[in-house]
Predict the structure.
Amino acid sequence: MTPVPEVLLVDDNPADIALAREALEQSRYPCRVRETVDGDEALALLRRQGRFADSPLPDVVILDLNLPKRGGEVVLSELRSDPSLRQIPVVVFSTSRSNRDIIRCYQLGANCYLSKPGNLSDFLSTVQMIGEYFGSRGATLRGE
Amino acid sequence: MGGIGTSNPPCRRRIFVVDEDEAADELTVHEVSMDDSAALDQRRRHAETLHHWLIEHNVCPCSPRSQAETALSQKVDELNRSNRELEQFAYVASHDLQEPLRMVAAYTQLLAERYRGRLDEKADQYLGYASEGALRMQSLIQDLLTFARIDRNGVTRSAVDCDSVLKEVRLNLSSTIQEIGAEIVAEPLPLIWADRSQLVHLFQNLVGNAIKFHAQRAPSVFIEAEKQGDFWLFKVADKGIGIAPEHMESIFAVFQRLHTRSEYPGNGIGLAVCKKIVEYYGGRIWVESQVGRGSTFKFTLPACTSCGNGRTCP
């Protein structure tokens, strides 16, 4: 049986986390969701340091850009320069639609850049699409 | 105390000296001989003293004309800076405003969907107004962002064929054109040295308006351009509802609307965007119109002066 996809949400906005969590948990292909609220915490989880020593590695990271402490761009570039984490897909999910942010994130190695839709149903279906595509893909690879 | 000044006749450099007689409270000017090196040295020392004195007393040691020029250039710098700050402000504000607004929009929608029929009828109505307001504000901010971005970095100029711009506009508006049964007639248009996406924006807003504010079914829009000196004059004409004289200037302001949203949808930013684009290239935009007879929007864009036939190149 395919393992349940593990999704790591990195976002400092509790309202967005609640919406994304709901979308992912109630999707046709439910995911297990973990959340971290700043860049430092996200990197600690990914490197399984401190209280995250037993956390599984995520199948996909959904990363906001504007984060306290180390920002999204730093998280992304640290992830890409770490050989043991390099292959984890990262989807940047930010309010920003500026070309500068989009180009920069792809340069840093993001797999996908999606701006957070303003409309509720678009927001939910976008997050579900991320979970379905990247999450289940990673979980299937893990299961093999 | 004395000052020193020089003038440059073609043949010989002459030196004049201004002497201040404090007792008589008057200034006298006399020439110093170029051969009198001792007198010149003394004058030079006087000049330096005067210069320092002026600086110490916060007086600009230069002529009224150059003072005015300095003041003018300072004002220009100030204005440029304040413009940049304003644009930066609009840009940042629109970015940072979107985040909390998305929360309001998402959660009122969620509330309206999950609790519809479980509260009373009034509550459903209130939630409807709240989420409608949030969605409208989102689209206003999106428009403001578009407006603020117009002359920011990222403008790439090339020789743009306005015929192909219009082709793209027809494609973008195709569903509206079909739905309304509009006809767009255009004379051959020139090449313009500009940013292509901005020209698409410009033509699309004007053609879109010409169709939107139509008077009868199957409206037609006529587009032409003629060379006038260093500029191309473009005309976008319709036989639509027209604009009253008192509104002919205000329609180019941001978020200026003449009709309710239920009559004609839109945020009232289209013409402000057109104006900003045209003025970015040093052109002008205006409208000639009669209520009930139609409107002709006219704008100018610079033509290439180095090119004889007027088909523009850099």
